[in-house]
Every structure is written in structure tokens, then in C-alpha cells.
Amino acid sequence: xxxxxxxxxVRTAEFVAKGLRQAGYSVEHATDGRTGxxxxxxxxxxxxxxxxxxxxxxxxxxxxxxxxxxVQTPVIVLSAKRSVDDRIAGLQAGSxxxxxxxxSFSELLARVQALIRRVSAIPEATTLGLRGLELDTQRRKVTxxxxxxxxxxxxxxxxxxxxxxxxxxxxxxxxxxxxxxYNFDPQTNVVEARMCRLRSKIExxxxxxxxxxxxGVGYVLE
Length: 222
Hints:
Layout (H helix, E strand, L loop, with lengths): L1 E5 L3 H13 L3 E5 L2 H8 L6 E5 L7 H10 L6 E5 L4 H9 L4 E4 L4 H16 L6 E4 L2 E4 L4 E4 L2 E3 L3 H12 L5 E2 H9 L9 H13 L8 E4 L3 E4 L1
Parallel strand pairs: 1-2, 1-3, 3-4, 4-5
Antiparallel strand pairs: 6-7, 7-8, 8-9, 10-12, 11-12
């Protein structure tokens, strides 16, 4: 999956690009609206994330021109403008979603994933499995080799997040924002503590681990 970021603020673009790459996406970045329009017009991107205030061509005009050219790539608008009229303008221009700055990366990622699912018409799986471990989101049930594993609500959400990102490294920040839904505090060890408890419940002694720590980056289930 490839995402196009059209954003002239380098710091914001790098923040978003880093998170998307950690989540397994390929990312390309255009720093002005005219370049972004040219790249987006190729139709090779799965999602475009477009800032409103751009040099050479503003984001709203970019989206309008893109739709006039018949390109239906899903677009998420990023804007510091919070008014209802501004959101309506973005949606009427042809965008699919509108996110107000500042935003949490986990919310942006969830919206990217939702747009991709909508376009591909592939429903989100309700049963996830890996090496004898099975998680049922509808019944809130986890089993390991057929035996029930009792998890607390946060542990269940943490495991579901890891399983939906199997093979992808997820950072501590992403986990905090997605599972605990608040901004990352570098001093807290809540992720490490809960990850340790989760490991003790889903990993068998003497068998290869399911959850791996990627030092300095985060965790991966594989």
C-alpha cells in the first residue's frame, strides 16, 4: 500500500511518514500542491493525505482538479481550520475525510485504514489467528491451542492491535495512542508492564516467542 503526503511543513510530513512506514506503508512526499497534483494524477496511490495551505496550489484546488481529471484516489484533508464551513468545503471539493490539526497519529492511521478497506470492499476480519493463537473480536474470546486465555480488557485490545499489525513493527507511541487513547509520555512504563503480562499469558515456555521487542523502535508480533 502506498500513501502520498502533500504537506509543506517538513516536520509534520516526517512525523506522518515515519509512522506510516512503521505501519508497513510505502510513502512519498510532495512539498507543494502543483507537484502533489502531478504525482496524485498518476493514480498509483492508495490514499493521499493533503494539507489545505500549500504553496503553488492550495489543497482544495488540488482535490478539485484531481476529481476533474477522473482520479478517484481517496483523499484525507489536513487543516488547522476547525469551522464546519471549512470541513464542508473540503468534502465538497471531493475529499473523503477531514482531519483537524493537531491530530494524533493513531487517528490518522485508523482513517487511512478505513478508507483503504472502503475502497477495496474487504471487511475487517473478526477472527485473527497466528501459530495456535486465535482472537475472536465479536465474542471477545482468545484461545491458545484450543484453550481459553483470560485477558483483561486492555490486554485484549493490545493483543488485537498487535495481531492486526502482524509482521509490522508498532512503536510505543502508536500503542499508547491506539490502546490507551492518550498522548505518549516517555516516562511511563505502562506499555512494557502490560506487554510483559500479555506475553506470560499467550506464550508457552520453551517455545519461540510470539511478541518480539525491536530495541529502540517498538514491538512486533510474528
